């Protein structure tokens, strides 16, 4: 059986929240790693895959970017930004005694994001890093005999029937994660149930090695056409220090004239350019 | 007692190789984490600290960059590039039977870098990720009764009296790591025993939020003065998606006119600029 959507699992993670927002009525298949999610689309086991691209606190997810560059055949067809809201949850058996739990399980990033709550309210507890927030919640569900709790999202609490005993324990209010949808061809994926925030085009540029001001020249080609760049990021080409791929987000969708002309010109000065996708982006409201 | 140099330990890591190259006659103190190394300079427990900044394969060490931005009081005073050469080593007891060892310990990056050797020659062995290459070598030294080996550098083999049974097992020949030396003030650290490769100046720029072409304008200010940029990197400001620090490496040392004028001008268009250091850089030859 082939599923419509693959995602970085397990259930109850923030990636699963992104999947539920984008594909509310589809069966989704979880994979254990980002490369496995990407391969699943490439080999046709799923039609789309949803992977994290960037987080407010942690920055770019390098594994996603490095794989996207490697698998140039796949296209980004949509993007959704999901707010990161962390809650402290325990098995219903421990609800009354939640403040005395001995060990708290979660993803290392989630533990870091809830430093204030953990150091003030849960000083006595040992922190135990876990592979994902969803897996931490599952472990708590499976061990009602232990005095433990998990930090995870509302979806994980629902999925694993845990009680949220303290909501919104994250230090920073506007922490968000960007997720992208990958697909075999470049048909933009429109999502009717979410308000459209705009369009982006992501390109990868390799500069010529013998040309000192090449990056400035590339940016000039966009600047005089008033094509706004919302992000520029370098990643190593893995062939030697000083060799980089540049990933550039353009604040508009692919057109017939301006972007193609710019790309043709920067190729003419010796750059190698790939369009990773031109796609709509959405903001997911957290209803909880 | 205060040590001259702090570094990311334990003994026998690539950071220790950088320390031995830069400070051959000094006692060095190892710390367990990058933030601990940086704090050690800040609080005066050591005069200098050596931390990894960038690797050919893995890219920038985000933790180092994020801490450097946060601790703006510290300066980068020198840089050394160390070739990454990985070797397979065992306890002398297992030297004859090295091809049959059951478990191989190393840092996850080192295991990934030796994929070819591991999948061809050591197919039967289980791979065990460890905190560092040095710690993996120490574990092998401490357990002569176990059928195990480690992937680490020549310094680790010497430090822990292990036998290198297969040298240079890394897939990619020109893998290198850049290390920087941090100090409380901006006195460049000259290293007489290494040939000087040149000078760099690293600056951090925060762009004004209300100004779309600001990055292009910043690069223009350097370009028309023919100040060459060798690297540009973005890191999240951790206040919301779309807000970045830019780290820019300039291919020359701080002067009295050109760089100060450029900085004054980009500050005048609303950027926030910090000079993280202006320093000599060196290439360490691997003598083994």
Describe the overall structure.
The structure is a homodimer of 288-residue chains. Chain A is α/β, with parallel strands linked by helices and 288 residues long. Chain A folds into two domains: 3-83 and 176-283, ACT domain (Alpha-Beta Plaits, 2-Layer Sandwich), CATH 3.30.70.260; 87-166, Periplasmic binding protein-like II (D-Maltodextrin-Binding Protein, domain 2). Helix content of chain A is 26%, strand content 34%. In chain A, the strands form two sheets. In chain A, strands 1, 2, 3, 4, 5, 11, 12, 13, 14 and 15 form a ten-stranded mixed sheet that branches. In chain A, strands 8-7-9-6-10 form a five-stranded mixed sheet. In chain A, helix 8 packs antiparallel against helix 9. The longest helix of chain A is centred in the C-terminal third of the chain and has 11 residues, at 258-268. Chain A starts with a strand and ends in a 5-residue tail after the last strand. The A-B interface holds A 54-59, 62, 81, 172, 174, 176, 178, 212-213, 215-216, 219-220, 222-223, 228-236, 238-242, 244 and B 54-59, 62, 81, 172, 174, 176, 178, 212-213, 215-216, 219-220, 222-223, 228-236, 238-242, 244. Chains A, B: Pathway: Amino-acid biosynthesis; L-phenylalanine biosynthesis; phenylpyruvate from prephenate: step 1/1. Chains A, B: Its EC number is 4.2.1.51. Chains A, B: This is Prephenate dehydratase. Chains A, B: It comes from Amphibacillus marinus.
């Amino acid at each position: 059986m082939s599923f419509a959507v693959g995602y970085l699992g397990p259930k109850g993670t923030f990636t699963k929240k992104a999947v539920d927002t984008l594909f509310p009525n589809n069966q989704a298949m979880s994979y254990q790693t980002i490369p496995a999610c990407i391969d699943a689309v490439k080999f046709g086991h799923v039609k789309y895959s949803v992977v994290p691209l960037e987080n407010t606190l942690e920055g770019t997810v390098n594994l996603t970017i490095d794989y996207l560059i490697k698998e140039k055949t796949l296209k980004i067809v949509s993007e959704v930004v999901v707010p990161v809201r962390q809650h402290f949850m325990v098995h219903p058996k421990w609800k009354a005694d939640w403040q005395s739990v001995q060990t708290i399980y979660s993803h290392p990033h989630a533990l870091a994001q809830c430093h204030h709550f953990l150091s003030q309210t849960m000083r006595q507890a040992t922190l135990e890093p876990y592979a994902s927030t969803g897996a931490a919640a599952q472990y708590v569900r499976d061990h009602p005999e232990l005095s433990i709790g998990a930090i995870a999202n509302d979806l994980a609490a629902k999925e694993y029937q845990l009680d949220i005993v303290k909501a919104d324990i994250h230090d920073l209010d506007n922490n968000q994660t960007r997720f992208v949808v990958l697909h075999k061809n470049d048909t933009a994926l429109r999502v009717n149930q979410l308000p459209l925030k705009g369009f982006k085009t992501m390109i990868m540029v390799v500069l010529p090695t013998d040309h000192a001001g090449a990056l400035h020249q590339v940016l000039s080609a966009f600047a005089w056409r008033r094509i706004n760049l919302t992000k520029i990021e370098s990643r190593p080409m893995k062939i030697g220090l000083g060799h980089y791929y540049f990933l550039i987000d353009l604040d508009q969708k692919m057109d017939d004239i301006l972007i193609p002309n710019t790309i043709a010109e920067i190729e003419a000065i010796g750059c190698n350019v790939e369009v990773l996708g031109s796609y709509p982006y959405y903001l997911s409201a957290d209803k909880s």
